[in-house]
């Protein structure tokens, strides 16, 4: 038998529009990581 421990799990979906330029998506991911996401 498997015992599961309850834990909080949160998710968030974002729809963003960013310019099609090299490094823009990485900048968004870095900003999210800076505040503790991902």
What would you note in describing this structure?
It comes from Microcystis panniformis FACHB-1757. This is NADP-dependent malic enzyme. The chain starts with 23 loop residues before the first helix and ends with a helix. It is elongated, with a radius of gyration of 16 Å. The longest helix has 11 residues, at 24-34. 29% of the residues lie in helices and 0% in strands. The mean pLDDT is 85. It is built from 1 helix and no strands.
Core attributes:
38 residues, mainly alpha, 1 helix, 0% strand, NADP-dependent malic enzyme
Would you spell out the secondary-structure blueprint of this structure?
Blueprint: H1 24-34
* Residues in helices, as a percent range: 25-40%
Gap from first CA to last CA: 32 Å
pLDDT < 50 stretches: none
What spatial form do the alpha-carbon principal axes imply?
A: elongated
Strand-and-helix sequence, N→C? H
Cα-based radius of gyration, to the nearest Å: 16 Å
Number of strands: 0
> Given the structure, what is the number of helices?
1
* Structural class estimated from helices and strands: mainly alpha
Average pLDDT confidence is 85
Strand content: under 5%
User: How is the main sheet built?
Assistant: none
Organism: Microcystis panniformis FACHB-1757
Protein name: NADP-dependent malic enzyme
Q: Nutshell version of this structure?
A:
The chain is an all-alpha fold and 38 residues long.
